Amino acid sequence: MAKLWGGRFELESSKLLEDFNASISFDCQMWEEDIQGSRAHAKMLHKIGILQQDELDSILQGLEQITQRFKEGTFALKNSDEDIHMAIESALTNLIGESGKKLHTARSRNDQVALDFKLYTLKANAQLRAQILELMQTLLDIARNHTHTLMPGMTHLQHAQPVSLAFHLVAWCCNFLRDVKRLESTFTRNDTSPLGSGALAGTPYGNDREFVARELGLSAPSLNAMDSVSERDFALDLLYDIAMLMMHISRVSEELVLWSSAEFGFVTLSDSFSTGSSIMPQKKNPDVPELLRGKSGRAFGNLQSLLVVMKGLPLAYNKDTQEDKEAVFDSIRTAQICLEILNACLKTTQFNPQNMLKMAQSGHLSATDLADFLVKKCNIPFRDAHHITGRIVAYAQSQGKDLSQLRKEELTSIDSRIPKEAKKVLDLQSSMQARNSLGGTASMQVKSQIKTLQDSLNDAQESLAQTKLATFNPRGEKRAK
Ligand code: ARG
To answer: Which of 137, 146, 411, 421 is the most exposed place for a label (fewest CB within 10 A)?
Structure first.
């Protein structure tokens, strides 16, 4: 079959070349963005006098018919069309005839693919932010009920100081808020339109690039044509953002794996989000958080893979760049599914404050509080206070008790300088509430952290709602059932 670019060729393409060269099997995911770009381009061509009104009308109608075919799943994808851009252009010409051949005036596939791919990543960016915000809302809703729920705070995975469950969940949320902000900045740094850059040097047609950018809901035309067709920073930015997000998801998941073990028992994962063992009938496995933890691997790999593709390329467009898409599609899909399932899993997870308390009571977590109390209230030098506290810990241990469970009399019998009120600071709840410094674990502080996060979440949602880009749902028809 004759190629759209076949004018100077005498021999037919080898089938081997055709299959190797083609990207349509994966770039078909950008059909919507390609049509969006073509609409804006056609309107611009009409505006600058290249297309007559009837030609524009028939192009727009043809593109509408093609949209329907994609939605119904009846658009035939053939490697002989090479990529989505040529597939749509030749389908258009088959449908409407001569005016279809005018659509490619004043553009090249190089600026076309840069635009399509950029639009795709920007839409995915907005959609991922919406999903992260949902996840944050879930965490904040759980946290609100647990500002007094004690658990052992750990460093080196060893018991350190008592904290509240809410404090821990808020810490997770802080990671996710940074992910949202990172995506926001990736979005605003990259929302320019490369269309009209032509092959690399601009076009001789006087394209109205401002008009095209406005039509597409982008902030402005990109600055330099050569840069526009060769850079893939927008894709790398997104891959990095997703890698960070997945690293956070992985750390949260690791804690869910730990917390759901018999040793911790902090959470019970719902049966609907757990799996069994094919051989050990008693087992209930945390496959969901384990897979979430494991999925970060491919997200990091995708970032690495595109960095390597780009690193030696001379300006401007090179075909190597065609290797940019699968990594990005995979990272987007991975992040979407991971956010969806983590959110659903958390919503059905049961938190077990009793087990958290039990573990908090087994590490003498309030020892520092007692030493501080003896210094501040009894004017005992810190070195002595440390020593006295050490003796009390040893006593508690010999009694098989936690420090927080000792009676007043037991304390005073060890050292007569210890007043009765010391009992109060041993209490884990008081110890937790005492850390009332800004950002600390005291309920008052955590409530204020929750409020700040909720405000940021609401702001982020608002700025998302103002995004002028068409909504994006690459999962819908594009995800395998
Ligand atoms: N399928 C190509 C890609 O993904 C489209 C651009 C091709 N341009 C060209 N001049 N061969 O990069």
So the answer is: 421
C-alpha to C-alpha distance for 21 and 332, rounded to whole angstroms: 24
Q: How confident is the model at residue 276 (pLDDT cuts 50, 70, 90)?
A: confident
Instruction: Give the residue from 161, 478, 166, 209 showing the smallest Cα distance to 337.
Output: 478
Q: How many whole angstroms separate alpha carbon 33 and alpha carbon 51? A: 22
Kindly give the distance from the C-alpha atom of residue 84 to the centroid of ligand 1, in angstroms, as a whole number.
Answer: 10
Cα–Cα separations (whole angstroms), residue 262 to 110, 258, 355:
57, 9, 10
Q: Is the CB of 321 under 6 A from ligand 1?
A: yes
Helix residue ranges, H only, 150-164: none
274 pLDDT higher than 90 = no
Q: Which residues contact 127 (CB under 8 A, 6 or more apart)?
A: 336, 471, 472, 473, 474
- What tens digit of pLDDT does each residue of 406-420 get? 998 888 888 888 888
Contact 113, 459 (CB under 8 A): no
pLDDT band at residue 429 using 50, 70 and 90 as cut-offs: very high
109 Cβ below 6 A of ligand 1: yes
Separation CA 119–CA 40 (nearest Å)? 13
For residue 58 and ligand 1, the question of a CB distance below 6 A is answered with no
Alpha carbon separation from 440 to 167, 168, 451 (Å, rounded): 8, 11, 14
Give the dihedral sign, CA 143/145/146/148.
positive
Question: How far is the C-alpha of 162 from the C-alpha of 420, rounded, in Å?
Answer: 22
